Amino acid sequence: MDRQSNKITAVYCRLAHYDDDMDRATAWNQMEQLTQYVTERGLATPELFCDWGFSGLNDKRPQYQRMIRAVEAGKVSDLVVLDYPRLGRDVQMCSKFVEVLLPRHGVTFHAVKDGIIYTPQALNELAAQREAIYAALFQQMRWERGRR
User: Fold this and answer.
1) Which residues contact 62 (CB under 8 A, 6 or more apart)?
2) Measuring CA to CA, how many Å separate 71 from each of 10, 48, 134?
3) 96/4 Cα distance (integer angstroms)
């Protein structure tokens, strides 16, 4: 499904530790699974963005930053990760990236092991649902405070 041949499929890999042969084997396996997924689905030209030895607790990762720049420049049609935590361990940072930045730039999100494929439209709907839940929670909290 070569949706937009002038764009790439960003394939993001990350491991917090990259010290020994086992880590290298894990890294190789991660890249292999992702490139196989991209090939099987006929996604646009894959480009690897791999941060080995970087924690997911912050976004100061060189390849992650390069990938964000590619998304913001409109060069990415799809983003493929092994699982959601590969993007990062900071839930707010990842939510902002996936629910705001990706749909703004028309990027489809794939989390292979999680079985997730979110189109930009689905991401917009997810963000709207989250906002509705937050609004309902805040309204409930205000109502409960008023009862005291």
Assistant:
1) 51, 54
2) 9, 13, 28
3) 24
The pLDDT of residue 1 is 46
**What mean pLDDT is reported for the chain?**
87
The fold for domain 8-147 equals Rossmann fold (3.40.50)
Q: pTM of the full predicted structure? A: 0.81
More confidently predicted of 67 and 24: 67
> Cα–Cα–Cα angle for 121, 32, 37, nearest 5°?
30
Nearest-angstrom CA–CA distance, 137 and 56: 29
Q: Tell me the two tokens of residue 79.
A: 């983003």
The predicted structure's pLDDT at residue 2: 45
52 strand-pairing partners: 15
